Structure formats: structure tokens, C-alpha cells
From TrEMBL:
Gene Ontology biological-process entries: F420-0 metabolic process
Gene that produces this protein: cofC
Keyword DNA-binding: no
A Pfam family annotated for this UniProt entry: CofC
Domain of life: Bacteria
Species, as recorded: Streptomyces gardneri
Catalytic activity field: phosphoenolpyruvate + GTP + H(+) = enolpyruvoyl-2-diphospho-5'-guanosine + diphosphate
Molecular function in Gene Ontology: GTP binding; phospholactate guanylyltransferase activity
Pathway: Cofactor biosynthesis; coenzyme F420 biosynthesis
Keywords: GTP-binding, Nucleotide-binding, Nucleotidyltransferase, Transferase
Protein name: Phosphoenolpyruvate guanylyltransferase
EC number: 2.7.7.105
Length: 215
């Protein structure tokens, strides 16, 4: 087997320009704090992912210069969103950038809005995903998807957005049904989501920006 398959996971995180990210969160946070929180979510997600022993590297696909600089400082590799054709095109572009360097890389897409992400829970998801050619984890609502993986030589075939859980099931990806991985499933789009993430335990950057404002 090609050694690339055994040396850890390569994660791809897509991130919109901060001015456009997390628009539904503004009602709870206000317009000024919203983009700063969107960046904090991504920083906490990337930080936790890079601290996971199963992860070799993290690629962030974004055209936002502020986010790119902040996430590169954490150790992520920044790839411009050259397709500029939406979330799934960005993910496929990120995977190509990885496999151009390591043709048999084991890859996974991960949402960039997981501010409560725990490295131990991500490791459990990654360990389970290794058992299947393609696998995914549904979000907390069991409607969307927060994680999708593809083994060596396998296309990722991302179908994120809206009711993506059913689309990933229909595409043949195996659904990961683990308990105790709530932090990997808790993406944040609304104030209610943020409250649930807070109950799980926010990462340091999100906590620093949100807790003083939330009181």
C-alpha cells in the first residue's frame, strides 16, 4: 500500500469571506461581532484539528485575507478558492491541492464552524472513518453534514448544503453512528446553535469573543 495512506489525515475546511459568513447569526450577535465570531469558530476548529494526532495537515480554502493570515499563523495551509463556485467546488479544489502533492492521501472535509471541537472526539471519528472508502458524520440536527471522508484513491464527492445527510447516504457514503462525539456534530449557524456549543464548552478564541458579549 502507498505510504501516503498510512501517515495521517489531510483535512479540508472551506471558509467564506468573513463579511458574508454566518449571516443567520447576526440576530443573536449583532452585525459587528458576527464576522469576528466566524473567524473565531474557524480558528478554534483549525486549532483543535491540528492538535489531533490523527491529522497530518489542514487545508483551508478561502479568499479572505484576514482569515487566511490568522489560520496560516495556526499552521493551516491556505488555498485560494479559485473555482469560486460554492462550497462543494471549494472542497474538491482543496482535495486536488492535497492529492497533487500526495496522490494517495486520505482526505476529509470538515466544517469550519465547530467552535466546541475536541481533539479526542475528532480522533474517534477519524478512526471510524478509516474503516470505509467514504464515510460521513451528520450534524446535530441529523439533517446536514459536518464531516465527510474519502480513503486513498477514492473521490470525496461532497454534497454539502441543506439536507446533505440524505445526499451523502444516497451517494454510498457510510454514516458514522458514534455517541460521545457531539463537538464534531455541533456546527453553529444560529444563536441557538451557539448556546448549545457553549454548553459543550467553547474553544478559547470563541469564548474570548463571545462570553463577554453574552454575559
Amino acid at each position: 500500500m502507498n505510504s501516503d495512506a498510512n501517515d495521517g489525515w489531510h483535512l479540508v475546511l472551506p471558509l467564506k469571506p468573513l463579511a458574508l459568513a454566518k449571516s443567520r447569526l447576526a440576530a443573536a450577535t449583532g452585525a459587528l461581532l458576527r464576522p469576528r465570531l466566524a473567524l473565531a469558530f474557524a480558528e478554534d476548529t483549525v486549532g483543535a484539528a491540528l492538535n489531533c494526532a490523527r491529522v497530518r495537515d489542514v487545508v483551508v480554502v478561502t479568499d479572505d485575507p484576514t482569515a487566511g493570515a490568522a489560520l496560516a499563523a495556526l499552521g493551516a495551509r491556505i488555498v485560494p478558492d479559485l473555482p469560486a463556485a460554492g462550497l462543494n467546488a471549494a472542497l474538491e479544489h482543496g482535495v486536488r491541492s492535497i492529492r497533487e502533492r500526495r496522490s494517495h492521501a486520505r482526505v476529509a472535509a470538515l466544517n469550519a464552524d465547530l467552535p466546541a471541537l475536541r481533539t479526542t472526539e475528532l480522533a474517534r471519528v477519524l478512526d471510524t472513518a478509516r474503516k470505509f472508502p467514504r464515510a460521513f458524520l451528520a450534524d446535530a440536527a441529523e439533517i446536514g453534514t459536518t464531516f465527510l471522508s474519502a480513503g486513498p484513491g477514492i473521490k470525496l464527492e461532497p454534497a454539502f448544503g441543506g439536507a446533505s445527510r440524505l445526499r451523502h447516504l444516497s451517494s454510498g457514503a457510510v454514516e458514522i453512528r458514534l455517541t460521545g462525539v457531539d463537538s464534531v456534530r455541533r456546527d453553529v449557524d444560529t444563536g441557538e446553535d451557539l448556546a448549545e456549543a457553549r454548553a459543550l464548552g467553547l474553544g478559547p478564541r470563541t469564548a474570548a469573543r463571545w462570553l463577554p458579549a453574552a454575559g
